[in-house]
Write a structure and sequence with these properties.
By secondary structure, the protein is mainly α. The chain contains 4 helices and no strands. Belongs to the VTI1 family.
Length: 217
């Protein structure tokens, strides 16, 4: 995971959920009357802590890098299912306790069937919302991965084009040097031809002078 706070919340949440599991499975069946009501209240308080921890973990997950976000949301979904399962068990437990045997305490009210159904429906809505967020996060992560891959491919293609351009520049420079050499060679050939013509003319003139001197002088 990328967030130390997320890891700390996950560790605390796992510990509290384990405590709730043990209290529900081992202690609650043995308790009666007031002691049972107190244990139920304690479990509900811990469930409230778990709900708040889930909210904080979701905040951390949404601000985390996309490469870690999917795994974080999957872990949150797993914890939500555990909390929902325990909450359902606790609702059945609290509705089975007669209201006369429960001690009054702050924030506690009688729970009728309509409220229980509303809470259950709210839990289902939250679960569906969490699943939608998980799917959206997965799609976003996959899209971002594809984007990174496309960017990498474009970067490699750019490097290939740059190397090709450099090779073309080198080839162009070689061609320029070759044209320059050919131009110099052509000038030298023309110069050599002119010199050769001058030599031939000069030799012809000398030969003509010799002939004239020998036969006419």
């Amino acid at each position: 995971m990328s967030s130390e706070r997320f890891e700390a919340l996950d560790e605390q949440l796992c510990e509290v959920l384990l405590e709730i599991e043990n209290e529900y499975a081992e202690k609650l069946p043995l308790y009666k009357g007031y002691a049972k009501d107190e244990l139920v209240t304690e479990i509900e308080r811990k469930l409230d802590f778990c709900t708040k921890a889930i909210f904080d973990m979701e905040s951390e997950a949404h601000s985390a890098p996309s490469t870690f976000r999917f795994d974080m949301m999957e872990l949150i979904k797993k914890h939500k299912l555990s909390i929902q399962r325990i909450s359902s068990l606790m609702r059945r437990t609290t509705t089975s306790i007669p209201s006369s045997s429960r001690p009054p305490y702050v924030g506690r009210s009688d729970i009728d069937d309509d409220v229980v159904q509303a809470v259950a429906e709210g839990s289902r809505v939250l679960d569906r919302t969490a699943e939608s967020l998980t799917r959206a996060t997965r799609v976003a992560v996959e899209t971002e991965d594809i984007g990174h891959q496309v960017l990498n491919d474009l970067g490699q293609q750019r490097e290939t084009l740059v190397r090709t351009r450099d090779r073309l520049f080198d080839a162009n420079e070689e061609l320029t040097r070759t044209r320059r050499i050919l131009r110099v060679m052509r000038l030298r050939i023309m110069t050599n031809k002119l010199i050769l013509i001058l030599i031939i003319v000069l030799e012809s003139a000398i030969l003509a002078a010799l002939i004239y001197y020998k036969f006419f002088v």
